[in-house]
Amino acid sequence: MILTFVTVLFIAVMFIFGCFIYVIRKIEKNDVSSSIKYLLLSACVCMGFYGSAILVRNDMISSFLFSAYNAVDDIVILLLLRFAKKFTGTGDVIKGEKKVFIIATATDAIILFLNPLTELTYTCDSITDNFGIVFHYISKFKFLYSCHLGIMYIVVILTFGVLGRKISSTPKIYKMKYAAVLISICPVIAVNAILLNFETKFDYSILFYTVIAFSVFYFSLVYVPRGLMERLLFFSVANMRYGIICIDIDGKCVHANKTARIYCDAEVDSENVEEQVKKWYAEKVSSEPKDCSWQSVRRVDGKMRHYSIEYKQMFDNSFRYIGCFFLIDDHTEDDEKLAAEKYRATHDTLTGIYNREYFYETSRKLIDSTPDTDYCMVCTDVKNFKLINDIFGIAIGDRLLKEIASITAKLADNKCTYGRLTSDRFAICFPKNMFNENTLLYEYSKVSNFIQNSVFKIRIHIGIYEIDQRDAGISVMCDRANLAIKTIKDSYQNVIAYYDNNLRSSVMKEQKVIGEFETAMSMGQFLIYIQPQVSTGGYIRGGEALVRWNHPDDGIIPPGKFIGILEKTGLISKLDAYMWELSCIQLRKWLDAGMEDVYISVNISPKDFYLIDVYDVITGLVKKYSLNPKSLHLEITETAVMSNPRQQLALINKLRKFGFLIEIDDFGSGYSSLNTLKDITADVLKIDMGFLESTSNIEKSRTILQMVISLAKSLNMEVITEGVENKQQADFLAEAGCDIFQGYHFAQPVSVSEFESKYLFKCVEV
Ligand code: C2E
Ligand code: MG
Ligand code: MG
User: Fold this and answer.
1) Whose CA is nearest to atom 11 of ligand 1?
2) How much is the pTM?
């Protein structure tokens, strides 16, 4: 009998251990599975101790093993509670629970382990069976054993509480999941209590640990309560975004969820669903049935809704047809979202007409798809739009733009493309045969009185490019129309301009200059020419460095042909730095040849101040060639100074401090000459002779020139006049107090060698 018990105990241990291995290897790691793992392991150990305690020969060792078994017994029960908590997602049942249990279990364990010496908890004995095998058993339970049992039963009650509470609070379909565990634990505890009262020699109840271990393992990790999956699936389908209609082999509707019924307009009566299915079979599903899909539009609650419907057949494991289902996807909101996104990507937010990107895209398609049609690109620009914003406010500016946008949209019919390019620029791509200049002028002139109660007239400039190069980019076409706008002079009558041959050739020239610039720089095609500067006594000790492009095909090109283009593209700073270096190299050569009192004036483009650090570059060059900064005169135009006076005046002062001589170039050609004089501290004023020539009243101009010269003198500035072309001019200027002359009357700009041989340190007749 005892041997049978031990054998069963051994099998039970093996079984629980098997479950433990299964949990470790198969089940994904989470709180529940790990709590089960520890529970199984502790149950194994507990039963192992008990088995060993029965079987060992030595009384003392057996007594200790019984203590270990009882101590681990506590742990098993505690781990059962832990499992229940994890399984139900419950927190601590009593405050400071962990601490209380650790203290209680530790105290219990100490008492149990002292038992072989004290025998206060129980006493052990041994019996010999029919085969002569000695078995140990607990012969008598004493008072302290009740404490051990007390701890265990408290924990068991808490475990019941945790599971019971969950069962009462959880939705019906989940109750079974927790009840299964609770129900499987109950009889085990009951049997244990009963066996305890029978005072059997061996604790047969320990075998029921196998039942607890197995039921905990099975019900929480393997078993899904019957119906739970079906019910969950049912609810999933019922609340699905998609409509679903399941049809059995007889064509009867097994299930149609709410969305599907809304679609079939049959929220109550399922026959409508079947009617609908019949219709689909007749119209959409082919006679040789196979999966298919189609689109459908329906009015639901007064709104057109868009659906895609999918038909799918179902087969069992032996590939026998068992029915089919229809999946109804209402993609109205998705479509609307997509349409809104597309609208945002293709439309201008302010005016609501097409944006630049979409205009470029559609124009490209239009031109490419109709190779036999000629087109013209029309661009518009509001004259002084910034001013309108500044004076009348952004709101008026915005309203004006919306008005122009609506005119633009009205002008363009469905054979045209149109859009807003940038702030006040709009464009239309017209087929040539639809383009009418007068209509265009008439429509856009409607905004001229847009600002009421004001004399301010709004003018829209129109540039037209008759597309002759169809493969050019749309942006290039717009650039050409915009270029035409730039040629519109400031008159009220003229608001329209065409991109013509002149513009074309100037664009070509620009592109040529830009394209050839880098090579020209690297090949040293830019040369320094010097125009001598003559003192009133006729003596020459320096001149202005003026660039010449020694082009391999076109010969010597004057700067007027390329400086403007280089300024527009920002390449000018490269050329200027190069010219400054050539001038410094020349000055160094003269110094090395013993010519000390010589200078060169170099030009600084207004753009240089924005493109490079003029101070760093120029001072760097002077240091590099060990020059006296006085020998390099810097020509800065008055327009450059006045474009950003605060910064420029500070820079001029810094350059002067370093030792450079500053000349204000082209004085008199700008708008604010006298203003400049008031603020600036320069060394030389370079007066432009054009200033004198452009007026009809020569006498008056001469008086002004005289005044400017004497003003400059009183401000301690030297005066150079450039563009002196004849003797009368020279005589008058000398009389007016001009210090130095520069002009064709004395000399043209010449190469460095000619300057050296003909002019440097020589006298010419004044
Ligand atoms: P600028 O600095 O005012 O140079 C004087 C211009 O007047 C020179 O034209 C010169 O040849 C011209 N000139 C001199 N005397 C007379 C005269 O008696 N009558 C007439 N009609 N013209 C005269 P150029 O060399 O064609 O230079 C034109 C402009 O190009 C220069 O005006 C300057 O603004 C610019 N430039 C020339 N070289 C450079 C350079 O290396 N860098 C920069 N940034 N600009 C330069
Ligand atoms: Mg100059
Ligand atoms: Mg000048």
Assistant:
1) 749
2) 0.55
